[in-house]
Amino acid sequence: MKAPETRESPVPVEVPLRAVEPPEPEVELSEAEARRVDFAWSAGMVGALALVFALLSVFGGVAVPVLLALSAAYGLNPIVTTLERRGLDRTVGTSVVFGGCALLLAGAVLYLIPVFRDEAEKLPDFFLRASKRVVPQVEQLLGRPLPELLRQRMTELGERASGLLQSAGPTAARLLASFAGNTARFVATLLGLLVVPVLAFFFLQDYPHLVARVKGLVPRRAVGLVSRRFSEVDDVLSAFVRGQLTVGAILSVLYTSGLGFARIDMAIVIGVIAGFGNMVPYLGTTLGVVLALLGVMLSWQGAWQLAVVAGTFLFAQLAEGFVITPRVVGDKVGLSSVAVIIAILAFGELFGFTGILLAVPTTAILKVVLRVVVERYQKTALYTGERADS
Q1: pTM of the model
Q2: CA distances from residue 60 to 187, 193, 365 in whole angstroms, order as listed
Q3: Number of CB atoms found within 10 A of residue 354's CB
Q4: Are the C-beta atoms of 377 and 383 separated by less than 8 Å?
Q5: pLDDT tens across 183-197, in order?
Q6: Gyration radius (Cα) of the chain, Å
Q7: 377 CB-near residues (< 8 Å, 6+ apart)
Q8: Residues 285-323: b if buried by 16+ CB within 10 A, e if exposed
Q9: Which of 124, 268, 325, 349 is 20 to 30 A from 133 via CA?
């Protein structure tokens, strides 16, 4: 007789929870409620920015690495999110992105060190040759000889500049050794630099959880409106970051191509500095022109080089103003050059170099806050002149 078969009950398999929150239900808020939420959100954003700058002023050694790590995580999060949507684990995607950034940085350093070394070796000889050639060329242009005292002073100036540059290397080495000799400062700086990528990796890996935790602190009735406001801030910041990086990359290609055609040795370095320096209005162009003229003097082959350099910068500026920036950035950020310059000067005066770096993003956030406040104010009875319902 065949024994009856016994079926084992299936063992329940624990399915890991996904880090995806259910969509928040839309809550219809009255105008008075929405106004209170928007004003509270605006005050919170201003207070958060003030707290960031206060921490930077008081605890700069700790706050700066954390802020840099958060900025790196915010900037790289779209790439990791795209990889995650294509089926790659977030930790693996974060590792892939950080590995690619490390390779790019190592390649840039390995390229730049020999270039700067070679160009620095040319400078002493350039000043010696310039001190001997400038005077005859000036006399030829004027059609008369220069006073003997002026000739001697220009020759001495060239010799002193050459000697100063020749001694710059040992002097820099001594300064570096003196800095390294101060053990506490050296260790603090080194740890600050080393901790940034470590913090950025963990921030980027846990980015969705960090956002979910912050979102979970918002009152449930207000979470929909607050989420929209943060989305507006994110749109402005992401448009600024992506737009400026894209514009900088395009300008770098234009500058590098033109300066390379002019046979300037440091064409790539000057092109990248001038292109990405465009994030600060007029700074990139000014630095690029100065460095390009120096490169022309170091590799002088004729007046045609000056014409090519001038044409390169003129074409790039016209293309940036009329084609590149309107098409790439558009009016999503909406900050004029005057506003950017004023913000950089003000934040730089108050908070130094860190303030310069944070000036434009902070101004973009404050622009959204001001727009929200004005929008709500224009719906109040004080503005419209109508009687309030309550």
Answers
A1: 0.66
A2: 15, 13, 22
A3: 20
A4: yes
A5: 555 555 556 677 888
A6: 29
A7: 383
A8: bebbeebbebbbbebeeeeebeebbeebbeebeeebeee
A9: 268
